[in-house]
């Protein structure tokens, strides 16, 4: 009969149960640890693959840019060296239509807002036709526009009004000069006023343009 003391057989069974529970616990731990480790390894491998792919893409782009830079440099040199220039002038001359093509392009569409340079261009056009300038007005927005850049730059308007006096023929020639100027002008209004002495006064409301420099953005990309 049992006297409350576990038998040897019972002790053996309890000991075996403890071993089984311990073995199961260890096995579960190993399985869970292995699963987490495998998941971590897979995630790390996938991340490394993305990093390698991004690096290869950046390398290919860099090599393409280096090649393009060389071609662009050669094209620029040929463009600047063309004689005559794009408006028929001498690339090394100092005349009205002279200058290399780079200078011609910058004169036509400057990269900065320079209202004094615009008024100087208009004064030169008027002086070439022996006209007297009574005044040039407009908004000198240079401070606000200073340092403007863009990834996709677009022309920016520079409105102005100029009043000139002279003969009818010279006034007519000035209008033709606006049309032929390498600097773009968009005229919105002409107002003619005749005088008793045969002279003509002309008021021109117009716009010229400048285009901000292109901003070449170099950015860092974080691979996630």
Instruction: Please report the first level of CATH classification, the CATH class of the largest domain.
Output: Alpha Beta
Q: According to CATH, what is the topology of the largest domain?
A: Alpha-Beta Plaits
Distance between the termini: 71 Å
- Specify the helix fraction band: 40-55%
DSSP summary, beta strand count: 6
Uncertain stretches of 5 or more adjacent residues: none
Instruction: Tell me the CATH superfamily of the largest domain.
Output: Ribosomal protein S6/Translation elongation factor EF1B
> Which structural class is indicated by helix and strand composition?
alpha+beta
Q: What is the average of the pLDDT values?
A: 82
Architecture of the largest domain, CATH level 2?
2-Layer Sandwich
Radius of gyration: 40 Å
Biggest beta-sheet profile: 4 strands, antiparallel
Key terms:
224 residues, alpha+beta, single chain, four-stranded antiparallel beta sheet, 50% helix, Alpha-Beta Plaits, rod-shaped, 3 domains
Strand and helix layout:
Blueprint: H1 8-81, H2 101-108, H3 115-127, E1 132-138, H4 142-145, E2 149-150, E3 156-166, H5 168-180, E4 186-194, E5 200-210, E6 213-214
Parallel strand pairs: 2-6
Antiparallel strand pairs: 1-3, 3-5, 4-5
